[in-house]
Amino acid sequence: MLPLGINTDYALIALAYMVERGDQVSSARVIAEAHGLSLPLMMKVLKILHQRELLQSVRGTKGGYRIGVNLDEVSLYDLVSILGGERLIDVDPQSRPRSFSGHAPALALQYRLIRFLREVSLSDLVIPGRRIEVPLEVLSLRNRKQPSDRREQELASASA
Question: What is the pTM assigned to this prediction?
Fold first, then answer.
């Protein structure tokens, strides 16, 4: 499985939550509680998305966030980049990062992964009816497996 970081997981969960509620304002607390997630981390992720103008904020006692962009126009690559790159290395023929081997098979794989991340829009992941389908066999296997650490428990509860 492509290892995306927990910040990306939280962002996708929050965006899906907001999409399902239309133009309604959603607080970090409500989203975190609805999915059993860490409130401080959810607050951090939403703040970053607001600073990068993916979300609009509403102040006050009934404040929170709502989606501020067309999710068709934002790719998964953009989201990962916004959230700090999470070990994402772009393939640029002019500069090769020291941490990347530069061997042809590794470069080919990296190029394909980056291209895929750029082709998947956020709406493909969070809008009901447009979400990329996951085979039922994968979901049933995942539900039978006992999560072994906190991250897996958070992911399991997020997919429920």
Answer: 0.73
